[in-house]
Design brief:
Elements: H1 22-39, E1 49-56, E2 62-69, H2 75-87, H3 89-99, E3 107-112, H4 114-137, H5 141-153
Parallel strand pairs: 2-3
Antiparallel strand pairs: 1-2
Helix pairs in contact: 1-3
């Protein structure tokens, strides 16, 4: 019988099916847990709330939860939504503690998703450009075509 030396085995390390880092998997899990929690919450202040993502820092101290609403960005409405989310923070952390198997539950911070807001701003800018292009294209193009046809006929 062969004696093991130094506690190491000759077997190669088993490969896992994990193709992305631990924090990315944890972010996806936390997004799912938090979204599931808010599906069960009935709070009129939140309106149509979407959890767009969660990002936990490397030492699991803080989890930034990104949210989006259907409402147009308005500082007063945003403050109401963030206040309502702050009231649900402890329940969200409790849901994370019970459903995720973590040594430490991160503090949850709610923020509006800057990507969604930036995309909406870009879309509105593009829509206003389309209106400008449509107005300039309403100039009589047919007149220019007719003038060309008449000059070739002469």
């Amino acid at each position: 019988m062969a004696k093991r030396q130094g506690g190491s085995s000759k077997r190669p390390r088993q490969s896992t099916n994990r193709h992305y880092p631990r924090t990315a998997r944890l972010n996806a899990l936390l997004t799912e847990i938090i979204a599931g929690h808010f599906e069960r919450v009935d709070d009129d202040k939140l309106g149509f709330l979407t959890i767009t993502g969660a990002e936990v820092d490397n030492d699991l101290n803080v989890c930034q939860v990104f949210v989006s609403t259907f409402a147009e960005p308005d500082p007063e409405e945003d403050a109401v939504v963030l206040e309502a989310l702050a009231q649900h923070r402890k329940n969200v952390q409790r849901a994370i503690a019970t459903q995720a198997k973590l040594r430490k539950t991160p503090d949850v911070v709610f923020l509006f998703d800057p990507a969604v807001r930036g995309g909406a701003r870009i879309e509105s800018n593009l829509a206003s450009l389309d209106l400008v292009d449509d107005e300039s294209s309403d100039q009589p193009e047919s007149d220019a075509g007719e003038a060309t046809d008449q000059s070739s006929a002469d």
